[in-house]
Amino acid sequence: MILQKKFFDVFPSAFGLDLSDLSIKAVLFNRSKESDAITSFGSVPLPVGSVVDGDIINQQVVVDAIKDLVERTKPKKIKTRKVVCSLPETKAFLRIITIPKMDEKEVKEAIKWEIEANIPLTLDQVYYDWQILDKNFTQGKDTMDVLVVAVARSMVNQFEETLTKAGLEVVGLETESIAQARSLLAEKNEERTTLIIDIGDRRSSFFISVGNTPCFTSSVPLSSQMITDAISKSLQIPFEQAEEIKIKQGLGSLSFQSPVLKAALPVLENIAQEIERTIDFYLNNLQYSKSIDSVILCGGGSNTQGLLPFLSKRLGRLVEFGDPWVNVHLGKQMPLIDRSHSVQYSTAIGLALRGLDEYENLT
Fold it and tell me: Total structural domains in the chain?
């Protein structure tokens, strides 16, 4: 929905591009009457320092990496130049605002005033988009709720310039939370409230959605890399060896604390505390729903063996792996990306689904 460009012709599907601090992932779907099929997917690493906290520091390195990825995707090379790209959640502002009931033309002006009041940037410093929600969370008879997303103009311009230099045409930009909601939350999610925990390489993000509407997002500088670093320092082994142990051996049994679990425990505890703070803030302050009905784990760090049972036990809640194929109509086909890696592609899959939907809406 956010920062959508208008189209006047029908083109082939756009591909989804998830651009983060340490990697770039791409997914392209082809939709037929019978099913959806992945025609292309792939991932390339980014050198440390190329992108820092969402800011593109070394543009040429990122441009070259995007070009390389587009050429290397499997099973087919991406031929379309049209792309829907992610925007870093840390640089975006997502709010549900309540305004008096009015017609859609009046909403546009009211939104401007609300952005000035709710977002720590002036109106001329942001690109913004909004959507009137079918559900009225505040349940006021004379009010309506509107989902507003705003992103700094400097950030959007930086991403668009980088993608253009890579030879791509930007047809959509979207925050990670909205893309992940599209890929991980079933279309018939209805009134269930879901917490999505995204454990990334450089940060962790928490998204809460009621039905399929993102209501609250937050990010903290706690990451999968910090877990690896803690293991490396505690066991006095190289970072690369610690990463291999974390992925292949995991944290070990929760009942018998292995040296790996003991090393990682301070970071894991901090992550769990931040999740609890997020839940408490949502339930006590926002109150868009009365409970958190389900918790989904995704992101590159989610594949750490033992992380899911640790969070389930520590939070006292059932935590499940996200299924990014829940809204992909594969028919009798099996996903080309195996289960253990697919959660890392959840943002790219959500963006690729947006790429399909944009063009379908024009036919």
Answer: 3
